[in-house]
Amino acid sequence: MNDGGGTDTSREPVTQDASIEQRLAQAMAELEATQKAVAEAEEELRHASCTVRSKDRAVEVTVGHQGELTALRFLDGKYRTMTAGELAASVLEAAERARTQMSRQVMETFEPFTRPSDAVPEMTGVDIDWAAIFGPGVQETAHTAPGPSRNRLRDEIHEDAEDEHDV
Question: Is 6 domain-assigned?
């Protein structure tokens, strides 16, 4: 029986009284179901993308399931009145937000596999170090994540401008 959330509730937890063969059969069935679900999740994500507009609404970026930039659009001609530094900051800000949203989608998709099995207590969930995969900021919520620092980019742009005058 399915509980409506995709979980099969007809599987009874393995008890200590069950024979080794029964416990092994249930563990194998659980493993096969998990392998199938992982393959389905991978296929779903293979076609996933995320599109985000910069806060100034000058650019729109799309990233693929691995965070790779797949599209970049300049909107409404706003880029024509922007300095190179402002445009670069808009592109980087939108790309970072899109990558963060995509990584969170990946985490949500694979989160069920991190939980231990109800039916087979010996099958613990997979321990995934999301921070090692996506970086430490991915687990922060949108409200707790620090905003992008534009000062560093501006400092580097100013330094480049100074370097050009030194030549």
Answer: no
